[in-house]
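Continuing the batch. This is chain 6 of the set; chains 1 through 5 are on the previous pages. Same settings as before, nothing changed between runs. Recording input and output for traceability.
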Amino acid sequence: MGNCLVVVGLQWGDEGKGKVVDLLSKDADIVVRYQGGANAGHTIVYQGQKVILHLLPSGILSPNTKCVIGQGVVVDPEALLEEINTLCSMGVDVVPERLLVSHVATCVMPYHKTLDTLREKRAGARIGTTCRGIGPAYEDLFSRKGIRLCDLLDKDTLKGRLSDILEEKNALIGFFGGEQIRLDEIVERFHSFGLALKPFFGDASLFLKDALDSSKRVLFESAQGTLLDVLHGTYPYVTSSLCIAQACFALCGVPPPPDYKVLGVTKAYTTRVGLGPFPTEDHGEYGESIRQRGYEYGSTTGRPRRCGVLDLPLLRYAVSLNGVKRIALMKTDVLSSMPVRVCTAYRHGNETLTSIHPSLVSNLKLSPIIEEMEGWSAPLIGQELHPSLVSFIRTIEAQLQSRVGIVSTGPGREDAVFIFDVWT
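Output for chain 6:
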């Protein structure tokens, strides 16, 4: 078995990464969240209950797994504490022995959320964010104005840093017509959050380097999908961080192991939340059927997801970019007794495009070339995958030059078929 696996979404997020990581956590010593913030929502069915994780790695539900939140994540301390308390009330052991949070991770502060919301309300300026303050927090990180988790532990240090930062932030908030934020109020609150989280703080980079050097099995999980990557996605309708597999090592401060593997996660169809191009979106009955049958609503915001057919040109791009050789195919049950449609290429004028950079999707007038395949009445017949689903899988493998190793046939932990060991 290999000792390093990166799980990455191949679409616009919401592919089912949470379930995949939950399933694989039993074989992992450590699960690491390496980017994003509380804008992500990984939905897992645990002991018959739906659990939505926003900041905690999906491995937290496996009792023998240590979880790490790396310094590339922007952490909302209040949201993290709420998540920890919720899981503890469900009987999940979230203690310092099981959770390490990088002490130098950047905080999402109240002014980040305020600015995010005010910007989204401006006519003509919308991106379709979750308004959780993620983009403004990353802006502050890279402009060297961020508040880090370790800054919360000393009240005087925190107050000194915030007094300078708030002068600028309140001026911006005033420009957008928002309500000013008071210094003393957030100093007290965030100092208390820091003290509550202090037992979980540590040097994530050093911990992970030691773990990889000692051949611990480490699983890195992305929060958003490849097509939302700030450098490699459908810009500007993207998230604010690097989502691709290779980014995990830079963001966590560890060298990439020579034999690391990448598992790409995709649905059997395509969805997208928020604004931005979506060439294979179906605005009719087919798309609505997928939405209702798959309960395609955002885990974080509850917004209806836009739905359409599987987009192989964009998947080819994502597979190539991430170096994917293993695929998890999710939500095959949603297409049961429905037409199974696949976009194999785009038509652009007289050209046929089988792969395309996402940034061009916004600028080109593309006509998807859609093929219909024989469907299945149910993903499983007894213990075997339906022959039509097997044919669908073979088509995906041939088109993407990558093998499908996991097939999800329903929402539960038990609804998954492992075709081969994706760690090896």
